[in-house]
Amino acid sequence: MAAYQDMLRHTATASPWYVVPADHKWFARVVIGSAIVSALETLNLRFPRADQASLQEFKRVRTALESEGKGKAKRA
Fold first, then answer.
1. How far apart are CA 7 and CA 1, in angstroms?
2. Does the pTM exceed 0.90?
């Protein structure tokens, strides 16, 4: 057990290790899901902001894509 703890302590420098019990799949999945959610919450992610020129370009592209298929027979 000491060697196991020593290995984890020395190899978890860049990214943490998670020991997940695998006796019950449902519980293992709960532990893994919880670890993922916790890691994502610490990232403080936000949607990128677009400037006015980019928004206008997006609007032109959207209009072009929406009108692309109009007037043509749909393929199955």
1. 10
2. no
Rounded-to-integer distance, Cα 17 and Cα 9, Å: 9
Q: Which residue has the tokens 């703890």?
A: 5
pLDDT in tens, the chain (76 residues): 899 888 877 887 777 778 888 899 999 999 999 999 998 999 989 999 999 999 999 999 999 999 987 766 555 4
Residue 75, burial from CB neighbour count under 10 angstroms (0-12, 13-18, 19+): exposed
Instruction: Give the residue carrying structure tokens 């009108």.
Output: 67
Q: Are 23 and 17 contacting, i.e. CB atoms less than 8 angstroms apart?
A: no
